[in-house]
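Run log, item B.
One chain of 717 residues. Sequence copied directly from the ordering sheet:
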Amino acid sequence: MALTPKCFDLLWKLVEERGNLVEKGELMKTIWPDSFVEEGNLTQNISLLRRALGENSGEPQYIETVPRYGYRFVAEVREVQEREVEPVSKERAGSDSDAKWISRAAVSIQEEPTAERTDTTAGWLAVAQPVPARRLWPWIVAAMLVAVGATASWYFRPKSPPPVWRPVPLTSYLGSERNPALSPGGNQVAFTWNGERQDNFDIYLKLIGSGPPLRLTTNPATDVSPAWSPDGRTIAFLRRSEGDRNELLLIPALGGPERKLAETLQTRLELGLRSVAWSPDGLWLVVSHRERDEQGEALFLISAQTGEKRRLTQPPRGYLSDLTPVFSPDGRAVAFSRLSSPGASEVYLQQLSGDFEAAGEARRLTTNGRWAVEPVWTADGRYILHLLAARRGGAPELRRIVTLGSNASEQVPLPQDDLQELSLGKHLVYSRGTGDTNIWRAEVPPPRGPASQPQLLISSTLNDTQPRYSPDGKKIAFCSTRSGTREIWVAEADGSNPVQLTSFGGPFVGFMNWAPDSQRLVFHALPQGQADLFTMPAAGGSPKRLTMGTPSENLGPSYSQDGRWIYFTSSRSGQFEVWKMPAEGGDAIQVTRGGGRGPIESPDGKTLYYAHLLPEKGIWRMPVAGGEAMRVTGPVTDVPEFVVTAEGIYYAAALESHNQTLIRFLSFSTEKTRTVVVTDRQFGRGLSLSPDQRFLVFTQHDQTGRDLMLIENFVVR
């Protein structure tokens, strides 16, 4: 039977990923990259492909269905190099497109014989030559059938079973244990913990096995990212200071006085991301740091003796930061993750010269378009492991990269778990989180009244975040993972009758805002690894992409008060600035020049408010018609959330303690600030005011915590 081009593209993708599960969302985005189609289209093409292969409804010979997730090509496949494939003329192939299919098919279903495989396998390779397009499919089927039969004895030979890794809890304390760092000998773990009262993060040590932890630091500031020196005698770590300033400190592993080595600047110093690593000779540390006049972090070497800084990497324009560095065992390279947007990063490799200078440009190792972080090396230097965020719900993947040759990547089978913050040596240690994020509502107190106590409004056993009241006050839009992936939902204003609105099936979706008429929503999503803007009807329908073709991140959109424009944050100028574009799409115009994000227009449409790139510099404003920008508020949260009214601004203020939600109101008339909501739980993303100005809705983390997990004697092979 004849195959459609989509069917052939589907076959190509499955064969290319042979043996691996290919998720439905990934297949749909590969086959229909610029269209939004129903899942039934994929199912129909899979059925046609099975019919062409002659596969019945019994045991799958070629395409295995993994219910609810995707498909796997399970037949044995061989390949030959393209040089061995005879060129096909247009006359023989029928068209340029057919010639391309023939070349791809010939390469995709054959493989050069190896010493381990029989002469029979080599024999069928000579038969599988390119043929005219109308006769191509029977040859593909025949070649695969022969390949399966000829290599059955090799394929089904006795194999040693894969290792069964059994993670066991290493810590199970109240609060959050983060940043595990396995000692060189593999018998201790350093980590940061916010203590039994969850009041401050300090550095602790624990022996593998039973026994209480040993507290190393007691400073009231937050201590993060511990790293062992190669001789096991010293631990380096970062202490958060004022604003984006941090101190790089050294402390004896057995306890004792601290020694300040250097200061670093890091806007994105997060508990969950490694920021410090030692060189194998113990002479240098590599840290994530930025200079005063820079917006994003690079990697710097810091002398362990003198504190001297030396630049190692430089993120290209449009990239945010270089993070999670780790030296190779021989000290000749540094692996790290490079952020292209808040939701996407890839693993890179920077080669080093003998004197620890950068040797050439950093080389990209992954191309997932997702969140790839936390690279770690195996002891023999053959592999780099890293974490990759899940595309369709579920847990993050642990993946293995071959460091020499093809840099091939494959998933390392582990029990499904919330893997984060890897440390690898004799054992594998990681952190696993438990928590619940919900949407709360608080009544706005009178000017001299006490701060309000919020009430739970929208909740589930999964994460519900970023609420937005519609301008008519009838609906609340919010983001939730209750469907398995983060999508946009719409509920009644009282939180009832939630309905799923988007079905992207995996990429980061969110930061939505309503049109003034309450009929549409604008939001950003990462369907192909890059953040772009979309609009869609609030009653449901197909999303419309507004930004495309520009190699930049486009985030956090909002409508102008007249509905004619959409403001958004974009990196297209080399750093994040506020831009605006026509609401129906078109050319964008740059608005800010000194950096900005999260733009919102005032109710009268005359003033634009936005957040500075540095949270400690608060919220700013400037005339919509153009003019000088002025600072308005004090420090805000790392992801700024604020609402502008005619009377003033409600905003999420910088936290006075880690576990706290603090919402303040700045009055334009009095220029005074007062606290309107305060709770003892950590603020999440999202803040919105009802149109009648009676209620504030916001997100807070109701249950948060992380424990450390241990897999003993972990070996990658």
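Observations after the first pass:
- The helical segments are 5-16, 24-31, 39-53, 90-93, 96-108, 119-127, 136-150, 152-155.
- Confidence is low (pLDDT under 50) at residues 80-159.
Flagged for discussion on Thursday.
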